[in-house]
Amino acid sequence: MTATFSQISVLPGVWPTSGLLERLCAVSERPPLVLPEWPSENSADRRAFVGTDAILAGWKDELGADRLAQLPALRYIGLRATSTDRVDLDYATGHGVTVSPIQGYGDIGTMEFVAEQLLRHARRGDPARGELSGRRLGVIGYGPVGQGVGRIATALGMDVLFHTPTHRLAAAGGPRWAPLRTVLATSDYLTFHSPAYRHVVGLDELKSVPSEAVVVLTTLGLPMAEADLIEWQRGRTGKVVLDLCAGHGLSAAAKQVPGVELHELYAARTAESVRRAEAGLLANLVACLNPSERESR
C-alpha cells in the first residue's frame, strides 16, 4: 500500500494551481485543505486543520512555534521557497517535523529581471542613451543567482565585482571578488543577492554608493534597514528598483521617496518557475513518504 499523509494543508503563500491540487490528492487520504489565512479558533476550517500532518507554505507564511504547536499531528513542512527563515527550526527538530525547502526554481526569472532592469536604465531614453558595456556592476552576495547575473553582465561587456563575507578566488577574465566598500563605491550598477531578511549594509556604507548608481533589489526583504534606505535615497539621483519580494512590507513613506521604483511583480515568478516549484514541492512530499526516494535523488 502506498504511504500517504492524512491531511495536507496549503497555506496562502503557495499560490497552488489546480494541477498541483489534483496531484496532492494522490498523496493524501483527504482532499488538500486550501487556506486563505491561518485558521482562527472559530474558523470553519479549524477542525480539519488541527488534524494536519503536512503543511505546504510559501516564503511569506510565518511558521513560529506558537503556530506549529497547534498541530499535534504535524510531521512535514514543505516550503515553496528556498529560505527556511520563517520556520521555527528548533521546534521542528524537537518535534520530529521534517522541513523541506526547494532550490533554484526561480533563479532564471530573477536573473532575467535584473538584466532587464540594467538594460532598461542604461537605455532609458535620455538625450545620450548609454550602453552597459564598459560599465561596472557590483554584485552583493554570490550564490547561484548572483553568479548567473555576473555571467550575463560579463557577456554584455560589463566589468563585474562581487562581494561575499569570505574572499573567493575567481576565474581569470570573469567577475572578481572585492571588499564591500570597494564594490559599493566603484559600481555604476548594484544588485543584491544576499541572504533572506538580513541587513547586510548600513547607512554609512550606503553613503559610499555613487549618487547616480542604479540599484536592483530582489532579495527576500530589504538588505538594509528601511530607515537607512529612506535617508540614503533622499540624497541621491539614481534609482532603487525593487520587486515585490524586496518590497514586501515596504511602508508608504519608503515607496514615496523619489527614485524608489517598486514593480508590482515577483521577479522569480514566471510560468516556468511555477511548474518547477510545484514539481519540487510534490517530489519532496513523495520523498518524505518514501525515504528510499530521497536517498536515490
Question: What descriptors fit this protein?
Answer:
33% helix, oxidoreductase, alpha/beta, Rossmann fold, 297 residues, 15% strand, 2 domains, disordered C terminus, 12 helices, seven-stranded parallel β-sheet, five-stranded parallel β-sheet
Walkthrough of the structure:
This protein is of the alpha/beta class. The chain folds into 2 domains: 123 residues, Rossmann fold (3-Layer(aba) Sandwich); 156 residues, NAD(P)-binding Rossmann-like Domain (Rossmann fold). It is built from 12 helices and 12 strands. The strands form 2 sheets. It has a 7-stranded parallel β-sheet, with helices on both faces. Helix 4 links the parallel strand 4 and strand 5. Helix 5 runs parallel beside helix 6. The longest helix is centred in the C-terminal third of the chain and has 19 residues. The C terminus is likely disordered.
CATH architectural arrangement of the largest domain? 3-Layer(aba) Sandwich
Radius of gyration: 21 Å
Topology order in helix (H) and strand (E) letters: EHEHEHEHEHEHEEHEHEHEHEHH
Oligomerization status of the protein chains:
single chain
The tally of domains stands at 2
- From the spread of the alpha carbons, the general shape counts as elongated
Beta strand %: 5-15%
Q: Largest beta sheet, briefly?
A: 7 strands, parallel
What is the end-to-end distance? 22 Å
Total helical segments? 12
**The CATH topology of the largest domain:** Rossmann fold
Overall strand count: 12
What is the top-level CATH class of the largest domain?
A: Alpha Beta
Q: State the fourth-level CATH superfamily of the largest domain.
A: NAD(P)-binding Rossmann-like Domain
Adjacency order of strands in the biggest sheet:
8-7-6-9-10-11-12
Low-pLDDT segments, ≥5 res: 293-297
Class based on secondary structure composition and strand pairing: alpha/beta
Family: Belongs to the D-isomer specific 2-hydroxyacid dehydrogenase family.
Domain D-isomer specific 2-hydroxyacid dehydrogenase catalytic: 50-289
Keywords: NAD, Oxidoreductase
Domain D-isomer specific 2-hydroxyacid dehydrogenase NAD-binding: 124-247
